[in-house]
Design goal:
Layout lengths: L1 H25 L2 H17 L1 H5 L3 H19 L18 H16 L2 H12 L4 H8 L3 H27 L1
Helix pairs in contact: 1-2, 1-4, 1-6, 2-4, 4-7, 5-8, 6-8, 7-8
């Protein structure tokens, strides 16, 4: 009984954050919600094992794996809604820039998008990102560099298109 209460508390404390991370990677409410629900359901079914280690890292990895797997199963489509915006102190240009980054982020392959979100949105260390993605920590630096270069290229193309 205590185990169920522990899981309920864990799910209650983390599900909103997990959803925001999943949504930041997918930019798709349904896919993000599905990934979080699937991971939490799987974690519940083996909660004793999951809770014995770092449950947050374990479930985060399950969510990212679900998203990466779904990216291979179906093409990513552009969202029909505007990205969720946080409050920004300065008006128009920061909102335009933020939107441009989220739109460009959607153009990246899902694996690169996951690295950018885990690094800059979740603020995970390279070791934590590597553990989440199931790759070597040494690879993260190169992958992050590649993803940022691609993101810069996409933003440059977007700005040039906006000026034309």
């Amino acid at each position: 009984m205590r185990s169920e209460l522990d899981f309920e508390e864990f799910a209650s404390d983390t599900s909103d954050r997990f959803f925001r991370t999943a949504y930041a990677i997918t930019r798709d409410h349904a896919l993000a919600e599905h990934a979080v629900q699937s991971a939490l359901a799987a974690a519940y079914s083996r909660w004793r094992k999951v809770s014995a280690h770092d449950p947050e890292a374990y479930v985060r990895r399950m969510i990212v794996n679900e998203i990466l797997g779904s990216g291979r199963r179906r093409p990513t489509t552009a969202p029909t809604e505007a990205p969720v915006r946080r409050y920004v102190a300065s008006p128009e240009q920061q909102v335009v820039d933020t939107d441009a980054v989220w739109i460009a982020l959607l153009e990246l392959p899902v694996g690169q998008r996951a690295i950018i979100v885990l690094c800059y949105y979740e603020r995970l260390s390279e070791v934590e990102i590597a553990a989440t993605l199931g790759i070597r920590p040494e690879t993260i630096t190169d992958e992050t560099s590649t993803a940022l270069a691609n993101l810069r290229r996409l933003l440059t193309v977007s700005r040039q298109g906006a000026r034309a």
